[in-house]
Amino acid sequence: MESRKKNFRTMGIVLFYAGFLAGMVLFILMNWAYFEAYFYFGYTAPADMALTNLRCPLMMTSAESGQVTASISNNSDLDLTIPVRTEFSYFGASKLDKVDYPLAMGQTQNLSWTVTKENMVFGHLILARVFVYSSFTLPSRSATCGTVVVGLPGLTGIELFIIVLVFSLVCMAAGWGLWIAGNLPFQAPGLIATRAMAIFTVAVVLGLIAGYIGWWGLGLICTVACVLMIFSVGSYYIQKA
């Protein structure tokens, strides 16, 4: 019975950390793209509000094109023309454009811009910034976003993203199940490892959420927390060996 529990614990740790490392790499790449986008385009006059609906593709391959999307709404009592300025990374620099969008009172318009490998900078990133000018009573809004481009043939970016995400979550969940089955009833050594696994799980989930939303600051905190925990757990078990 004890031998079976030990096998459960070993398999649980292997599966959990395989999933953890995959999730960590995924959220670091996602947050890296948003981090670079925030600083890439240089200074511009600050907007009144954040353009919270700006989205870049979660991931792309160099052989495909993707869509950067946003939406603008006219919540005023007048028909308006709302100027929108876009900046996209382009052959190592940036490409700027400005378009006026006529919107009737109460109308919302979905916007999209196509990006390809021509928009790549730093070898693996596509970066974007959108600035919606103020119009009548509507405040100005702005945001940046970014996408990691990988050179993997045979898959689309979203397929690769889903595969890595599912692998990460399934492995961590299976690892948790085997670890708990192999440790009941819990004793002190098992509780220490369980707490570490809980911190790793929370850090990965928050990091993935941050990467999706574009909160690269939270993603940076999650990255630092994961690295520190890796060293802390490694040091603890090395000392006990």
What would you note in describing this structure?
By secondary structure, this protein is of the alpha+beta class. The protein has 2 domains: 2-33 and 157-240; 37-150, Immunoglobulins (Immunoglobulin-like), CATH 2.60.40.10. The chain is built from 4 helices and 9 strands, in the order αβββββββββααα. The protein has helices at 2-40, 157-183, 188-213, 216-240; strands spanning 49-50, 60-61, 66-73, 80-90, 93-103, 108-115, 120-121, 125-132, 141-150. The strands form 2 sheets. Strands 1, 2, 4, 5, 7, 8 and 9 form a 7-stranded mixed sheet that branches. Strands 3-6 form a two-stranded antiparallel sheet. The longest helix has 39 residues, at 2-40. It is elongated. The two termini are 24 Å apart. 32% of the residues are buried.
Order of helices and strands: HEEEEEEEEEHHH
- Which percent range fits the helix content? 40-55%
- For the terminal residues, how far apart are their CA atoms? 24 Å
Instruction: Indicate the low-confidence ranges by residue numbers.
Output: none
Largest sheet: 7 strands, mixed
Tally of helical segments? 4
Overall pLDDT confidence: 90
Instruction: Give the total of domains.
Output: 2
Computed Rg: 22 Å
What portion of residues belong to β-strands? 25-35%
Number-wise, the strands total 9
The computed structural class is alpha+beta
Shape: elongated
